[in-house]
Amino acid sequence: MGRPTLNRLGAVIATSILTMKFITDGGRCLLVDLEPPKKKMQERPKPKGDLQQVQIGQRPDQVTMIAKNLPEKLKESLAQFLKRNFSSHKLSIIYGSKPVAQKLQRMSPEKVVEIKKQV
Questions:
Q1: pLDDT, tens digit, 9 for 90 and up, residues 47-71
Q2: Is residue 44 part of a domain?
């Protein structure tokens, strides 16, 4: 919501308590809570039984946990699968450098028309 809309509504915003107050056409004063509702975090499923640590990357800290009570053959094939399909990401960051905003990339009018058709 921008300033023109707030001005048309005659709204008063209290940022310290995240509320907005305005008068309706009927003359009623409305108080609106601007704080978004907090999402309830779903509890993650917990594994049954004891766990065993398996190294899946090249470094010793690249590990995951699998169930100890799995059959030995399944444990081995699962560990091999995880090792083959493990990927690690690293961001190359120069500490102390300032962030730089990228230049806005404009699209040709033909592309804009095509995008609007699809969306």
A1: 778 899 998 888 888 889 998 888 8
A2: no
